[in-house]
């Protein structure tokens, strides 16, 4: 299990997920600056920790790393849901409660996914 993100880690991941291009530390810091004025080294440490935890990939370009998310926001959200189910004492009951809470559209999406060709 990769673990959940802290508040600052989540803010950094939001920047990376919202940007189509790989980001340098200074790019992430600039994007966070309007609401979170952070030191360059703080952002660098957070990105290094996210890399160590497997949340981001990095590639050295010149003297700076370029960071990209290791998975999409949707993939990570699905992993978090899976982790919650795995931690539940009674995952079947949790799923039943969840199924009763979804909208008609969400229900249709679930049904289509369960009936899909890649379903084992």
From TrEMBL:
Quote the InterPro entries the UniProt record gives: BlaI_family (IPR005650), WH-like_DNA-bd_sf (IPR036388), WH_DNA-bd_sf (IPR036390)
Q: What is the lineage of its organism?
A: Bacteria, Bacillati, Actinomycetota, Actinomycetes, Pseudonocardiales
Keyword Secreted in record: no
Is the Cell division keyword given for this protein? no
Q: What is this protein called?
A: BlaI/MecI/CopY family transcriptional regulator
Family in the record: Belongs to the BlaI transcriptional regulatory family.
What keywords is this UniProt entry annotated with?
DNA-binding, Transcription, Transcription regulation
